[in-house]
Amino acid sequence: MDSGESADPPSRPTAEVTSGTARETVQRRLEALVRENRVTVAVVFPVVGAVTLVGSAEGMLPAPLAYNPLLILFGTLVMRSPLIVALLPTIDRRAVAFLGVLTGYTYAIELVGVRTGWPYGTFEYGIRLGPMLGGDVPLALPLFFVPLVLNATLLTVLVLRDRAGRVVPRLLAAIVAIIAVDLVLDPGAVAIGFWEYVPPGDYYGVPRSNYWGWLLSGTVAVVLVDCAFDRAVLLERVRTCEFALDDLVSFVLLWGAINVLYGNWLAAGVAGLFCLGLFRTDRYDLAMLSTALPERWRGR
C-alpha cells in the first residue's frame, strides 16, 4: 500500500459489533443500577410519593412543594425505570413503531375526552402535571399511561404462564387487568385532586362511563402492545428479569396507600388483588426483599 493512502474505514459488521457491545455495556450498567436500588425505587419512592400527594391535597405542604410538577415527573420517571430498563433489550423497529402509534393514540383519546366528555365522561384536570399539550392534556401523558398497559400485559403473561401463548385468553386477561388498574387509579387521583368528573360518579367520584371508556381505550392499547413485541422474546425477558414488574409494585403501593388513607376500600381491595397477582408470579416474597436490598445493607 502506498504510504500516502488512508486506512480503509471500519467495515459495517465491525461497526455493528462495536455498537452492539456498547449497548450491552450500557444495558448491564443500567440493570446493575436498578438491582442495587430496587427497594428505594419500588418501595421508598411510592411511599414518599403517597405522603407528599396526600399532604398536597390536604394543604399540609408549602406552596413550592405542593403538587410540584417537577417532583411528580421525576418521581414517576424513577418508578418507571425498572420497567424501561427491563424492556430495552426487547425494543426493535416494530416495537418502536407500535409504541409510537400508542403514544399518538394516547394523546388523541385524552384530548377528545377532555374536550368532548367522550368516552370517559366529562372531566377536567385539577392540577398541572407538567407542561400541557393544547392547554388540556399533560405532555408527559404517555409516561403516565403507557407503562400501565405494559404492566398489565407483563403481569398477564407471567400469571397465565403456558396459556399466555393463546391469543384470546392473553388479550382478554390483559384488558381486564388494565381496567382493574383504573379501578385503583381513578378513585385515588380524584381524591387528591388530580382531576374531577362533572357530575361526580358513584364509585368514589368516578362515573361508570369512565370504565366503558377504559374498556375502549384499554382494548386498543393492549392490542397495540401485543403487536409491538416478539412474544417469545418478551416472555423470555420477563421470566428472566427479576425487576420487570417492580413498577407495578410501585403503583400498588402508591395508589393503594392513597385509597386506604381516603377510605376508598373497594379500590384498595383491587390493589390487594394485584398484590396476589404479583405473589403468583413467584418472584415477590420475603426472600426477594432480602436480595433486593443494597449490598451494603445485607447481613446487618
TrEMBL record:
A Pfam family annotated for this UniProt entry = Caroten_synth
Provide the alphabetized UniProt keywords: Membrane, Transmembrane, Transmembrane helix
Segments for region (Disordered): 1-22
> Is Manganese among the key words of this record?
no
Q: Can the keyword Flavoprotein be found in this entry's annotation?
A: no
Residue intervals passing through the bilayer = 39-57, 69-88, 95-118, 138-160, 172-195, 211-229
Q: Which domain of life is it from?
A: Archaea
* PANTHER family per the UniProt record, alphabetical: SLL0814 PROTEIN
**Name used for this protein in its record:** Carotene biosynthesis associated membrane protein
The protein's organism comes out as Natrinema altunense (strain JCM 12890 / CGMCC 1.3731 / AJ2)
Taxonomic lineage is: Archaea, Methanobacteriati, Methanobacteriota, Stenosarchaea group, Halobacteria
